[in-house]
Structure formats: C-alpha cells, structure tokens
Amino acid sequence: MLLFKYISFHYLKFFFIILSALVMFLVGFDYMDNADSLSESANLVLIYLVYKVFFAIDMLLPLSLIFAMISTKIFLIRSNALVSFYSLGYSRIDVLKPFVVVSTLVIILFISLHSLSSFSRAEEFSKNIRKNSAYLSPTKDLFFTHKDKYIYFSEMLPLQERAEGIRVFSIKDNILKEVIVASSAIYRDDSWYIAKADIITKPDDMSFDSPGMKIKEAKSLNILEGFRPKMLDQVYEGKVNFTIKNAIDALFLLKDQNINTSAIKGALYKIFIYPFFVPCLVVIIFFFVPISVRFLNVSLFSFGAILATLLFWGILFMLIELSNNKTIPSEIGVVAPVVILFLIATRQWRKYRIRR
C-alpha cells in the first residue's frame, strides 16, 4: 500500500505539472495568434480563453498521462527508489499497478467530462467567439428529412431553442402532398411547437377541372418529436463533437429512420474507446525501461519514449480525422488501433507476471 501511495503521488504530481505546462503553452500561443481578431469585450476574451483551456485539456490530457509516467519512472530510477522497491521484494507488476490504476481512473473522469457541452464543444464555441463574437452562432438554411417529411429552417437558434422560416414538406409515393408554412417554431415538451401556420394541400388530380390548391390556417402544431435543437445543430451540420447524451440520442433516433449513423458512432468511439490507448501505452513503455541508470542513457530513453508516444498519438489522431471525414470506417480508424495496443499490452503484462 505504501508503494502504491508513493508512486501514485509522484505520478499525479508530474501529471498536473506537465498538463498545466502544455495547456498554457497551447492557449498562450493561440491567444498571441488570434488576439487581433478577438472582440474588445473583456468578458468574451475571458470566455474564449476558458473554452481554449477546455479544448487543450481534451487534446493534451492523454499525452500528459503518458509523459507523466515517463517522468515518474525516470525520477524513480535517478533516486534509486526503483532498485530499492525491487530489493524489498516488489515485482515489476507491483510497480506498474499504480500507473495503470491512476491513469485508468483519470481517463474515466476524462470521459465523464464529455457529458458537458462546454467541454466537448469547446473548440466550436471558441471559433464562434472569434468569428461572430458569440459562443453559439445561429444555424442558417437547415434542410433535413424526418420520417416521411422534409423540413427546412431558414435560421435556428439553439440557445433560445427557436427556429424561424419553417417549411415542412409531406411526401407520399414520391409525390408532394402538403406543405406547412410557419414563421417560427419553439422547442418545448420534447417537440417543436408551431403556434400558427398555413397548410397548403395539393390535389391529387392536377388537371384543369381540379379544385386547385387548398390553403387553411392551423394552430398549435407539433413536429419533430425528440429532435432537440443542439442535436439538430450537430447532426445536420455535420459536426462531430457530440456530448455523450446527444450522441446516444441521435444514434437511436436516426437509426430508426435508416439514416447513416457512422459519424455519430465515430464520435462515441472517440469518447469511450480512444482515451484507453493511454493505459495500454503506459504498460508497453514501462517494460522497456531498465531498473538502473547503469543500464540506461536517461536522456536518450526520454527522447525516444516521448518521440514514440507523439508518433503513435499523431497516427491515431490522423485515423480519427479520416474517420470523421468518412474516408475510412470508424471501426478501423478508432477501435482497431486501440484493440491492437490492448492485445500487445496484455501480452506484456502476462509475460512479466509469469516471471514474478
């Protein structure tokens, strides 16, 4: 227990130091690059920096966990603590366990943060502040399908949960049957409420003897049940930074309509599977480090371990982006690399556990 507390303390200490340094580095350079394009409002600048911090944490936290493990291992080697632990009868697995347990717990906390919209959509919000001086900009000209209807919103304001310029086209047997025209709609009680609308009905017979178009006024209409404003904004604008709840709801809702949900699956894989490359890589790198400086060029090892980590992270990040753009399936871009890494880490774990 003493071993676990000692290593965990130093691991968390190095983790917070490295994460803070990397986040300040990224946010500082971003601010210097975009300071001229930001609003003069101090409040907006502060909100912009907060969202940039969230984005930096989202990107750099997995890397910081691995770098912290490398730093902690080097610290244990330089202080001869590692040799002392082995002399007292502790095995390599005993020394490794604190790194795996702590990194896994931090990853679980990291995943839970994606239930917050301000964290998972931080980069989107910061871009809106830089371009529009508002963290949530209206979505214009939104056209999509829902069940047997085609819906058009000329403008949607997710924050106010309101849409303007509504057109709902009802299609049957590939023939237009009815059009609902409304100036605005409000999201409430899990559906979109239209207070007043005109319903234009097209006759089946378009001959000269047909009665022509019928227009009637209707009140209190409800459409798009289950489609929340933020879900509409993300799904039909092709955005990939979902919160956990929005992604799961969108997945089940669109699956029932036989709509391609690969982008949403990719977002869920990125949230729940991608971060677990960290404990796997921690296990793999751990066993490559000798127990004493006599067998180790510390500078060379640190450089090699950091370079290998950055290389793998860069490849994984590239595969995720390819998955987001639907160039490759998300199962290949996100799931497969982490599974392969997990198998390698499991093999290493079993190999050294047997040697105990």
Automatic annotation (TrEMBL):
Subcellular location: Cell membrane
GO biological process, one term: lipopolysaccharide transport
GO cellular component: ATP-binding cassette (ABC) transporter complex
Native source species: Sulfurimonas hongkongensis
Full protein name: Permease
Recorded superkingdom: Bacteria
Positions of transmembrane segments: 12-32, 44-68, 99-120, 271-293, 299-320, 332-349
Topological relation to the membrane, as annotated: Multi-pass membrane protein
Pfam family, one: LptF_LptG
UniProt entry keywords in alphabetical sequence: Cell membrane, Membrane, Transmembrane, Transmembrane helix
InterPro entries: LptG/LptF_permease (IPR005495)
